[in-house]
Amino acid sequence: MADVQNCFDMVLFGGTGDLVKRKLLPALYNAFVDENINSEARFFCVGRSAMTDQEYSDMAYKFATEAKNTISAESWREFSKHIRYLQMDANNSETFNKLPEVLDKTRTNIFYLSTSPELFKPICSNIAKVGMNHSNSRIVLEKPLGHDLKSSNDINDYVAQYFKEDQIYRIDHYLGKESVQNLMAIRFGNTLFEALWRRQWVSSVQITIAEDLGVGSRGDFYEQTGALRDMLQNHLLQLLCIVAMEPPSSLEADVIRDEKLKVLRSLKPLTEDDVVKNVIKGQYKSGAINGSPVKGYLEEEKVSPNSITETFVAVKAEIQNWRWAEVPFYLRTGKRMQEKVAEIVIQFKDIPVKIFPTAGGNFANRLIIRLQPDETVKLYFLAKQPGDTNRLQPVYLDLNFNEMFQARRTDGYERLLLDVIRGKLTLFVRRDEQIAAWKWVEPILDTWRELKIPPKQYTAGSWGPASSSALLARDGLYWHEEIA
Ligand SMILES: NC(=O)C1=CN([C@@H]2O[C@H](COP(=O)(O)OP(=O)(O)OC[C@H]3O[C@@H](n4cnc5c(N)ncnc54)[C@H](OP(=O)(O)O)[C@@H]3O)[C@@H](O)[C@H]2O)C=CC1
Ligand SMILES: O=C1O[C@H](COP(=O)(O)O)[C@@H](O)[C@H](O)[C@H]1O
């Protein structure tokens, strides 16, 4: 249960945008219905056009119900009593004069910047101009924070003029997912896996975040961003940190963040040759998803017909520390892939001497942690086939958390919003983590730009370009691709 005593006012910049309407308001609605937020809390949603509170609430309701089918009209009416619409422009400081008039400074004042990162600077300085960056205020920054190391540093330096590090909440919504926190619980709440969780016993690790959706209406955003900045620099590297980090001594924010930082700093830097050999850049062409035809990336709205923006990226990474040296970590993410799935595959080493004949492949011991759409853990091992034979075949233990726990599994944003309200920073990214992540991906961006590397095409509805399979095939491996 959240700290419902904590009364707050939350200003959502980007209130008319996709993220607020589809994810943040539905998440706040859930927390409200579950009585996890203070009954006096208020939400101020910002946009540039003129709109009444009622018009805004009606529009938000329409989007929220489309995104989520469990919203009741009656509960929304109650929830919307707490919502106000504010017409403001990030670039017009005059419009910020409204803030001290409407916000109660004795409450926690939360500013959620769900806009493009170019607006972070004017929003911060305009908040400060009207004196709302006080000791009781917090700022939430959406990703991607900047475009590269330099622009990220630039924004962080700027924000740091007005807010202290412990007032800054850098969102990576994957860290708020129940399944990702469960990954920490599996690793650090049990002894079972710890002894095996190292280079002596693990031969490779795969981390996949695949989406079946395309870029939709976000073509202009995606053209500037691409899969590397949108997903790999943040979500995939954060998952890698949780898989690879040393056991933390507590759940305190900086203890966890220190351990993640050590992993990011241990990633083997990529040379230009590594990028050419070990990083795959892909772009979807037309194909079919669930039997329905879909457009290629170049035909999407607001996408240049000659675009070389990647909608898929796969990387072979290495962590240079005592636990993981020489264990390849294969990471991949893409849009318009065969299905929406996020999973981690820990492949254990083969036994040193084989005394049994085996049916069905060499990958005897494998732990597959599926984060979404369903949350499962599958442990594969070999067992004897029944009857007059010594032959072994793969079998698995299968655990489904949705069946195991009847309670509603909260969405990533809901948990993170509640943590901002409670002032808990553990699941937010610290500045030095972000710097380390940008430093590691920067050679990829530089090499792609300098060598003008075009993306390899893949058919929408497939698992990415053939070169992605080849990346693993070179090491005698293949991606785990099992349809739910
Ligand atoms: N959508 C998603 O699924 C995800 C988005 N994000 C990140 O969240 C952020 C927002 O994304 P998204 O909602 O998709 O973006 P949208 O393009 O849908 O929305 C942009 C918002 O910014 C507002 N805006 C633009 N210019 C100004 C201005 N000068 N002053 C005040 N407000 C302005 C727009 O308001 P107006 O009505 O005035 O145009 C609109 O509300 C981005 O950083 C994105 O990377 C992160 C993860 C997922
Ligand atoms: O941050 C982002 O994440 C979503 C995917 O999130 P998920 O929770 O649905 O897995 C992605 O679609 C979007 O492009 C990206 O900005």
Please give a structural write-up.
With 484 residues, the chain is an alpha/beta fold. It has 2 domains: 135 residues, Rossmann fold, CATH 3.40.50; 279 residues, Dihydrodipicolinate Reductase, domain 2, CATH 3.30.360.10. It is built from 14 helices and 17 strands. It has a 9-stranded mixed beta sheet with strand order 16-15-14-13-7-12-11-8-17, with helices on both faces. The chain has a 6-stranded parallel beta sheet with strand order 3-2-1-4-5-6. It has a two-stranded antiparallel ribbon with strand order 9-10. β4, α5 and β5 form a beta-alpha-beta unit. α1 packs across α2. It starts with 7 loop residues before the first strand and ends in an 11-residue tail after the last helix. The model has no long low-confidence stretch (mean pLDDT 94). The site of NADPH dihydro-nicotinamide-adenine-dinucleotide phosphate (NDP) has 22 residues, from α1. Pfam families: G6PD_C (PF02781), G6PD_N (PF00479).
**What average pLDDT do the residues reach?**
94
Helix content: 25-40%
CATH homologous superfamily grouping of the largest domain? Dihydrodipicolinate Reductase, domain 2
DSSP strand content: 15-25%
Biggest β-sheet description: 9 strands, mixed
Radius of gyration: 23 Å
Task: Quickly give the structural class.
Answer: alpha/beta
What brief labels describe this structure?
484 residues; alpha/beta; Rossmann fold; Dihydrodipicolinate Reductase, domain 2; nine-stranded mixed sheet; six-stranded parallel sheet; globular; binds NADPH dihydro-nicotinamide-adenine-dinucleotide phosphate; binds the ligand O=C1O[C@H](COP(=O)(O)O)[C@@H](O)[C@H](O)[C@H]1O; G6P_DH; NADP; EC 1.1.1.49; NAD(P)-bd_dom_sf
